[in-house]
């Protein structure tokens, strides 16, 4: 009887440990998209910036992490809704307009949070660095780099 009880306790402990590990794995995978997106955004913002600017930017982004995650989730949800509509056999103009409006709203919310971070960090920088940041940001948005060269557009060689 004792060996059966020991086996049952071992199996129960194994089930509990495996359940906890599976829960941790699933939780990590589900939160991973937001984490990777925020990391990519941080990397893009700080790619050409001096190291003295990088730390305040990271700190400001860390302070707004929950707002940024919510903004990313809202954006992802709006895009998924758009794809659901596009997959439907018949689509109306009103449905598309509503889905596009949700995407616009999500983009504006994400920009708002990003601008809050910049509003906290940029005043701490000297004028030359602020101008350098603005120029680099403008070049990134329009396909060039901060040094005046052209980056290849997506899908082109």
From TrEMBL:
Keyword Endoplasmic reticulum: no
Entry coiled-coil feature ranges: 61-116
InterPro entries: Metal_resist
Membrane-traversing stretches: 6-26
Record keywords: Coiled coil, Membrane, Transmembrane, Transmembrane helix
Family, similarity comment: Belongs to the ZraP family.
Protein's recorded name: Signaling pathway modulator ZraP
Species: Zhongshania antarctica
């Amino acid at each position: 009887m004792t060996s059966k009880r020991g086996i049952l306790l071992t199996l129960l402990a194994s089930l509990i440990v495996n359940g906890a590990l599976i829960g941790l794995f699933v939780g990590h995978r589900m939160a991973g998209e937001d984490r990777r997106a925020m990391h990519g955004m941080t990397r893009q913002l700080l790619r050409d910036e001096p190291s003295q600017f990088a730390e305040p930017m990271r700190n400001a982004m860390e302070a707004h992490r929950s707002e940024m995650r919510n903004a990313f989730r809202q954006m992802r949800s709006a895009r998924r809704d758009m794809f659901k509509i596009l997959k439907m056999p018949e689509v109306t103009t009103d449905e598309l307009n509503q889905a596009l409006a949700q995407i616009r709203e999500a983009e504006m919310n994400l920009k708002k949070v990003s601008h809050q971070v910049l509003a906290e960090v940029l005043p701490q920088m000297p004028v030359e660095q602020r101008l350098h940041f603005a120029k680099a940001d403008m070049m990134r948005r329009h396909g060039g780099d901060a040094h005046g060269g052209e980056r290849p557009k997506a899908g082109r060689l």
